Amino acid sequence: MQTVTLIYPKWNKIPEQTEFHLPPHGPVCVAASIPEKYEVRFIDENVDEIDFSASTDIVLLSMMLTCQLPRGKEIAAQYRELGVQVVAGGISTMLHSKEVATFVDSIFLGETEDGRLASVFSDFERGQLQGKYDFFHDFPPIDSIGPARRSILNDKRYVYRGVRMVDLVHASRGCRFNCFPCATAFLGGQQFRPRPMDRVIEEIESIDNNRLFLVDNSLAQSKEWVMDLFEALIPLKKKWISHPILDDEEVIAKAAKAGCWYVYQAVFDTSDVIRDRVKRLKDHGIGVEAAVLLGTDNQDADYIKRLIDFLLEIDVDMAEFSILTPFPHTAVTERYEKQGRILHRDWGRYTTAEAVYTPKNMSPKKLEEMYSYAWDAFYKDMPQSLRMARLFTDLVKKEMADGTYKPRELEKERQWSLQ
Ligand code: B12
Ligand code: SF4
Q1: Looking at ligand 2, which atom is closest to the CA of residue 184?
Q2: Candidates 7, 21, 43, 91: which one to mutate for ligand 1, based on the most atoms within 8 Å of Cβ?
Q3: Domain chopping of the chain, boundaries
């Protein structure tokens, strides 16, 4: 049997953030498209080391973030020196296609389903691997997207302080919006592509984990669709995290009934719109993790201070601060490029923990100071670990209330975390 080594390269984590690792989602979806006759060895380099001496017939590199590129390049060089061909794909391969093409044998642009990846393997088997497989915006039919192949994951690695991490799943692809710092419009052509509901529910039901992360770009794209999704989720009694949900009383109430545990909510200003949105979520027992972008053109140091006070005042459960980063193929990058504000393209430093451009109302150094200030000030009275523990306590209470809490499972997880 031939072996495929699928690798998710390591990147520099945000130092301020409590270190935890989520099971990568792109690779498990790719693995589902690899022909069954291959043995698949998966390495998430954030939690495991690559054994370059283990024999392999081909390497697939899956890169989601820009800051994974430098390590991806090193890995590719090492395998190619050993005479192994390397195919790269994933979001950052699409965002940096020209550059990635210079260091791998083949780049794959697009999604792998409906025979797209299988065609790469048949070329490989004939010794005729192409330099480029261009399926960009040639999306596979949405009903060809089956369940992800989570069996490739080493579950023991995705445990945080004795608690098993969430499993990731998506009910739709694409996003119809086009927010200025986001590359999703470029990647998905502003098309919202919901998967057939029965297949989504079937997949979610089959996941042996009561805690999930619905990684859909946004659950605010269609009221009718999210209402249907949440209705279908109710009987499964899963508990889940998600990106923002449509800010509508009926939708939020249904989300809570469907097991919504907490949401990432972008907080971009100190307006009543945000205050009311957070209150609505919390009133329904849904936790809020504020995703806060620092360094936009309307912000100066005082504004950032006010923003932190505001977050504490509206009592969000957690906050994740990021420095605005001009990733390729975003509206903000186009503007900053024209204005000559981009400082460098050292991709390993595009982690969102560094200012890689010149902000409008501060120096890059001042913005970095304010970024540290934001983390320190928000978590001063209650540290991240405690806030996280509080969110987990809420989760366990919800699970106990509907009988889905599994103390035995927890014991097993604790043992894993000690290994
Ligand atoms: C889910 C998600 C996350 C999850 C990650 C979960 C995980 N571990 O996988 C979370 C919420 C943790 C996350 C975090 C971040 N994210 Co994010 N995230 C996404 C999101 C919404 C979807 C990605 C996804 O899973 N899609 C579904 C899968 C199935 O699709 P896929 O990965 O594209 O895979 C398909 C193809 O690409 C292809 N493929 C993939 N790999 C390979 C490999 C080969 C060889 C082949 C042939 C094909 C192939 O096949 C797959 C199946 O068809 C994207 C936006 C988007 N629309 O893509 C942003 C996105 C990737 N995130 C982004 C960012 C910026 C971040 C953060 C830095 C934000 C922050 N400051 O906190 C953090 C970084 C993490 C950290 N803190 O260290 C940016 C990346 C920008 C960049 N150039 O780096 C994106 C593009 C959104 C944006 N703002 O533009 N993110
Ligand atoms: S930030 Fe979210 S809502 Fe906006 S375009 Fe990106 S994925 Fe869509």
Answers
A1: 6
A2: 91
A3: 3-143, 267-381
Find residue 262's DSSP bridge partners: 241, 287
Distance between Cα 234 and ligand 2 center (Å): 26
The answer to whether 267 and 244 are in contact (CB under 8 A) is no
Can you list the residues of the chain whose pLDDT is less than 50?
Answer: 418-419
The yes or no reply on domain 3-143 and CATH 3.40.1090 is no
184 lines ligand 2 (CB under 6 A): yes
pTM of the model: 0.96
Fold: same for 3-143 and 267-381 = no
Amino acid 360 reads K
Strand-strand pairing, 163-164 and 167-169: unpaired
- 167 CA distance to ligand 1 middle (Å): 15
Buried b / exposed e over 57-74, threshold 16 CB at 10 Å, is ebbbbbbbbbbbbbbbbe
Burial of 108 by CB count in 10 Å (0-12 exposed, 13-18 middle, 19+ buried)? buried
CA 294/CA 289 separation, integer angstroms: 16
pLDDT per residue over 32-46, tens digit each?
Answer: 999 999 999 999 999
CATH 3.30.750.200 at 267-381, yes or no: yes
